[in-house]
Amino acid sequence: MKWTKEARYRTYESMTLAEQKKLELSVSASPWRQHYHIQPMYGLLNDPNGFVWYNGRYYLFYQWFPFGAVHGMKHWFQTESADLVNWENKGVAIKPDYSFESHGIYSGSGIVHNNLLYLFYTANKRDEEWNRLASQCLVIMDKTGRMTKQATPIIKSQPEGYTEHFRDPKVWREKDNFYMVVGGQREDLTGCVLLYQSHDLKQWSWQGEVKTKERNFGFMWECPDYFELQNHGILLFSPQGIHSKGDSFQNIYQSGAFVGKPLNIANGHFDHCDFQEIDAGFDFYAPQTTVSPDGRRLLVGWMGLPDIEYPTDSEGWAHCLTLPRELSIEGNVLYQKPIRELKEKRKNEVSAKLELSDSVENLGTLSGNSFEMICEVEIGSAQRAGLKLRVGEGEETLLYLDHGVKKVVLDRTKTGTPFAQEYGTIRQKHYQKNKVRFQIFIDISSIEVFVNDGEIVFTSRLFPKIESQGIQFFAEKGSAKIEAIQWKYE
Amino acid sequence: MKWTKEARYRTYESMTLAEQKKLELSVSASPWRQHYHIQPMYGLLNDPNGFVWYNGRYYLFYQWFPFGAVHGMKHWFQTESADLVNWENKGVAIKPDYSFESHGIYSGSGIVHNNLLYLFYTANKRDEEWNRLASQCLVIMDKTGRMTKQATPIIKSQPEGYTEHFRDPKVWREKDNFYMVVGGQREDLTGCVLLYQSHDLKQWSWQGEVKTKERNFGFMWECPDYFELQNHGILLFSPQGIHSKGDSFQNIYQSGAFVGKPLNIANGHFDHCDFQEIDAGFDFYAPQTTVSPDGRRLLVGWMGLPDIEYPTDSEGWAHCLTLPRELSIEGNVLYQKPIRELKEKRKNEVSAKLELSDSVENLGTLSGNSFEMICEVEIGSAQRAGLKLRVGEGEETLLYLDHGVKKVVLDRTKTGTPFAQEYGTIRQKHYQKNKVRFQIFIDISSIEVFVNDGEIVFTSRLFPKIESQGIQFFAEKGSAKIEAIQWKYE
């Protein structure tokens, strides 16, 4: 299929039933459809948007191009859940209607005010010379689900001194004021975050930049999200153009946070520590947070990256969202734990306790392609010890401790159908103590590993054969102790 | 909406999701959607097709134009049922693929042979001057539901001496041979039935006409169906161009049967009684029969007629099928009884027993817009006695005995939204004995009345308000006894 401009810039409503059926058939033949992650019916999913608790349910929208696994006319697709575990597809929530949004409804956020859900998004337009025009817009949803879109943008364009890379509004409330951060780019092509203020969510005034200590940190900061947690101010964003450095910044684009003192909202000054990458895996971008009714700060990310080809692209669909995670701060480090609601999926428990000495153990009781597993690896004299997951003919995904360098390693070199190999096939992070706890979520084509209760997280897509379901434990050149509990998902 | 040729001759696959949504919204707002009859999701339903027991289920297809309530590009829509009561929509089964069927997949029938379902249909094509070209075609379905369409027609055109009005193949087996009747029109513009024979269901040879005693009986015979029942030969068909006569042939087009001796298949000679109309109601056409696994001859008809405007047309949908009926012969009369499977719907029984004397009784316990009712009316000295159904503000549908002329009368003069009034608003038939039994099926916008165990049947659409649910019993100028049992459907 040739993705001409005409083919990419169509609204979902113009899809014919023949096109729909073809996509459905193609997707239904995919061996890589997830069992318990949010994924598109067909087409391409990217950033999570408008994640919010409203009217007794969680709303979680995502960027969606319906016609195939490319980036084109973006819509907001709506999902809902009462429990953060079981999500219901609700169809397209926001689609291009007006001229100012003729080339896509881009990312944004939601906030509840006066019993209404205010959804802020970036309207993307291209003029005849294909110049981009970006504005920030508002649609208001009521409890019946009716959407009332503002007929003009609430912020018509970027401020002077900034380029048209002006997107991804995130709104929060502080006392009687509302604030918005928007991802931006200065005219010198460095990334930054722009700050707006409003009394009513409709009239917005520019406050200047969020003044961070990083004046030259990539060319664009996407998807900013500011919130406070345990008396810290946290600015989450997805910078583009950061060079890799040691084990960090290995992916094409990054996402992470400045953790600091609460933002000085009067002058935009933000006093913070160095940028910390939020995920150590291969496929993570554009996270967004919200607050649960009981006050937890929850995060969902896109389990994918722009400008990378994925094995499902040829099947007419791409990507999924991560599991929701609960954030916390320890020291100045942002921790992510899987939400406690996921425990409701724990049935069919099996466990194992092993002492390994330069050996590989294959326990028949532990296997699968859709499960949660908690595994503690205590490395003794071994040089390497850990797990092989999704083991099958010529396939394995390794998660282990490398004693010599004291690193946790996720190795997808032999994981299955290869992709994005130009960005390497190993991700690793330092660990401290010789006993490391892994909480692992495997789905048909993904892995999420929470190391030491969320100090490090590895989030990655994997594309092994569906029958590659083996789990092995190993210790090389010495001994190690491993304990594991597994809950297979039905 | 303007129904240009271009708008009428599109395949379902070319429907956009926006068009689909608009139709769905329009149909969902209709007050006349049926509760327990087969009806289209949207668009126009007409003839039942391919009614057959296969692979442990009943298959029942129907003619479908998806885009609105007009006749245009016809598809076969597929429904399935294990019990003849609960039907499942299965989507489009046959759509135009080849040039010879470029203007519609017209009516036909099914027969099971060697564990395969052979479906015969008429391919309709228009050339550039809009001349019609009709051929008979075959698609074979296997037990997995896969359809294999023959790439060329099995009968390329009508025989010499006949016009292009050549359609609606019905196939049956007799010993080692297969036979097909096709509706036809002689070049002198009189209707007839053409007979074909085959050994393998693929190669067909013309045998001449079915030689009936009616040489000049309307201009076209549609939907022929030949079968044998209780040692009689029965040729069911839908003649067009029959003038009304007494109480008969009141509708725009007719359907009925010649009941006779078994067809002499060697020479096509068919010795039969006069044509008998199969239904005395307002809305019935194009019936088709099949045989159940236990040997019953079952019939389903289209509860509608061509060339008539219906109140739902403006809602983007039209028509439904009748309930399935079991046929039998008493004397030389074709009886139709509701299939016994419908008794499974009998819950919530209420009954009444009344002696009326020039009065109207309104029993609160009996009411509804979706029910079955058995009612015996014994007319005494009354001039008229019977029922008023779907009674509401200014609305009523009458079913009564007219003692003076000894006729059963169905009167929809005040039934609700009027339509087809140019064909009259009363239908009536003679009865013999003064005690008459009615078995009545009311759905949201229809009535089917089986009189005296199926000797007479009245099938009609009704378009009253949904809240017109009253039932009244009446006797005028004298006395009558009425007993009724009602089962309201949930």
TrEMBL record, chains A, B:
<feature type="domain" description="Glycosyl hydrolase family 32 N-terminal">
    <location>
        <begin position="37"/>
        <end position="338"/>
    </location>
</feature>
<dbReference type="InterPro" id="IPR018053">
    <property type="entry name" value="Glyco_hydro_32_AS"/>
</dbReference>
<dbReference type="InterPro" id="IPR006232">
    <property type="entry name" value="Suc6P_hydrolase"/>
</dbReference>
<dbReference type="GO" id="GO:0004564">
    <property type="term" value="F:beta-fructofuranosidase activity"/>
</dbReference>
<comment type="similarity">
    <text>Belongs to the glycosyl hydrolase 32 family.</text>
</comment>
<dbReference type="Pfam" id="PF00251">
    <property type="entry name" value="Glyco_hydro_32N"/>
</dbReference>
<dbReference type="InterPro" id="IPR013189">
    <property type="entry name" value="Glyco_hydro_32_C"/>
</dbReference>
<feature type="domain" description="Glycosyl hydrolase family 32 C-terminal">
    <location>
        <begin position="342"/>
        <end position="486"/>
    </location>
</feature>
<keyword id="KW-0378">Hydrolase</keyword>
<dbReference type="InterPro" id="IPR023296">
    <property type="entry name" value="Glyco_hydro_beta-prop_sf"/>
</dbReference>
<dbReference type="InterPro" id="IPR013320">
    <property type="entry name" value="ConA-like_dom_sf"/>
</dbReference>
<dbReference type="GO" id="GO:0005985">
    <property type="term" value="P:sucrose metabolic process"/>
</dbReference>
<comment type="function">
    <text>Enables the bacterium to metabolize sucrose as a sole carbon source.</text>
</comment>
<protein>
    <recommendedName>
        <fullName>Sucrose-6-phosphate hydrolase</fullName>
        <ecNumber>3.2.1.26</ecNumber>
    </recommendedName>
</protein>
<keyword id="KW-0326">Glycosidase</keyword>
<keyword id="KW-0119">Carbohydrate metabolism</keyword>
<dbReference type="GO" id="GO:0005737">
    <property type="term" value="C:cytoplasm"/>
</dbReference>
<dbReference type="InterPro" id="IPR051214">
    <property type="entry name" value="GH32_Enzymes"/>
</dbReference>
<comment type="pathway">
    <text>Glycan biosynthesis; sucrose metabolism.</text>
</comment>
<dbReference type="InterPro" id="IPR013148">
    <property type="entry name" value="Glyco_hydro_32_N"/>
</dbReference>
<dbReference type="Pfam" id="PF08244">
    <property type="entry name" value="Glyco_hydro_32C"/>
</dbReference>
<keyword id="KW-0963">Cytoplasm</keyword>
<dbReference type="InterPro" id="IPR001362">
    <property type="entry name" value="Glyco_hydro_32"/>
</dbReference>
